[in-house]
Amino acid sequence: MKQRQYSLKVLEILIEEDDDKFIEFFEPKSILFKNHLISLHGNVNDDIISYLEDNGFKYQINQELPNPKNIQMEDAIIDDGRVDRKELEELEDKLKTQAIDCRIKLQELQQAVAELEIKANRDLVVMDEIIRSGREVNVDGDLLLLNRVNSAGLVKTTGNLIITQVVEGAIRCDGNFMMITVSPKANIVFNGVEVDNDLLQDKLNRIELKDNKIYITPVIKKEINWVQ
Amino acid sequence: MGTVIAVISGKGGVGKTTTTANLGLGIAMSGKKCAIVDFDIGQRNLDMIIGLENRVVYDMVQVMDGDCTIPQAIIKSKVNENLHFLAASQTKDKSILSSEKVEKLVKELKDSYDFVILDSPAGIESGFEHTIEFADEAIIVVNPEVSSIRDADRAIGILDAKSQKVKDGQDVKKYLIINRINPAMVQSGEMLKSDDILGILNIQLLGKIPEDKSIIDASNQGRPVVLDNKSEAGKAYIRVSKRLCGEKVEFVDVESEQAGVLKKLAGIFR
Predict the structure, then answer these.
(1) Which candidate from B157, B160, B199 shows the least CB-CB separation from A133?
(2) Where do the H-state alpha helices sit in B113-247?
(3) Contacts of residue A130 in chain B, CB cutoff 8 Å?
(4) A13 found inside a domain
(5) The domain that contains B258 carries what CATH number?
(6) How far lies A11's CA from each of A33, A38, B100, B178, B187, in Å?
(7) pLDDT digits (tens, 9 = 90+) for B113-165
(8) Is residue A176 part of a domain?
(9) What residues of B are in contact with residue A132 (Cβ under 8 Å)?
(10) Whole-structure pTM over 0.95, yes or no?
(11) Same domain, yes or no, for A180 and A142?
(12) What ipTM score was computed for the predicted complex, to two decimals?
């Protein structure tokens, strides 16, 4: 023996003596009742039965079902499919304006995403060659330079800049920060401001732009703390 | 197949021509066949430095124009038979040079000599570019002073950009000669130290030549200073020439050695 238990949705319809509007009512909503059990009461004619059978509905006629929730029968409202033209036009206009708004918003979002992508994909340029006198290096983005900038060499970046060896040439950096070791011969312009060499001393410096102010912090080598 | 070496500096007056003459003669004295070519068209000097100014009949431009052959234009040194010299034209302008002509000349010389040394003009214009274009190696001559080093730095940059060997994907060997070192001034900190210069230029050191008054007299006499056994500069040039010929020669630190002598003297008089 096998068994299973499950709930089933039921559409219960009472067709009164003079009522022949079943199909008119049922047809537009039939898709909703695809998996319902159609329980018919009252004056059920052959048209209804053949319609239900043709469309593959499961039905039963004049059979009482247990109704624990005691749901009351309501008048069936027939959807005649007719719509007020004016209302429709108003609705259409509303939708159109909404669509235009959506399109504008979408464009704005796409632009923002593209900008973010550019920022995210802006590769760090890594170079390991001496920037010799007379050479000009232009980098759109960030630059990590692992070698020297010799006297009268020029390094320009729109992004951040880190140079691990001594700078004796010129630097033009428009990023948010740079880390450089400069000799007194160097000429440093950071975001349009010429940085005084005396402030940079002869060691590694961190130069940052925060709230429209330039901060210079020397990165000092940590001294060994010997046991006292 | 020989080696073509361009002697360059960027700045004028640092001793390119003197270096060319002395290295040429030094290499010849080591038994290798060496041709030195003056590429400073319109301002030739090399003929005087090696004492052959009265022997110039044909010059390099005439060879390139096909007016004469290389053997006709070549002048053999009186001092050493291995040293041959090709003069620059004094009357023409350096705009007369073209890449094809220079390449042909350099290739022909390369085939018949062990070493071909090209004396570059000062500056970084076309004359300089033609000198480095077909060179296998370059000797960069600097003085221990900032302007000379910046100009040399620029010249190295152009060498790395425009040399035919670099364009073919190879490397041009670059050697540094620090010329006119005054040991006392280096010791007192007035002159740049070799380590600092090497740090800036980052190329191999071929030799250090101390400042030597006998060089001026040697140039005026047309007898390169390598012929003078007593001259410190002459000895230094001999060492450099031997290194170029592949011999292993110990580095003599001319900066501190002389300072040592001075200290000894100071010790005596104390």
Answers:
(1) B157
(2) 126-133, 146-162, 164-167, 183-187, 194-201, 214-221, 232-244
(3) 202
(4) yes
(5) 3.40.50.300
(6) 8, 5, 99, 105, 109
(7) 999 999 999 988 889 999 999 999 999 999 999 999 999 999 999 999 999 98
(8) yes
(9) 153-154, 156-157, 160
(10) no
(11) yes
(12) 0.75
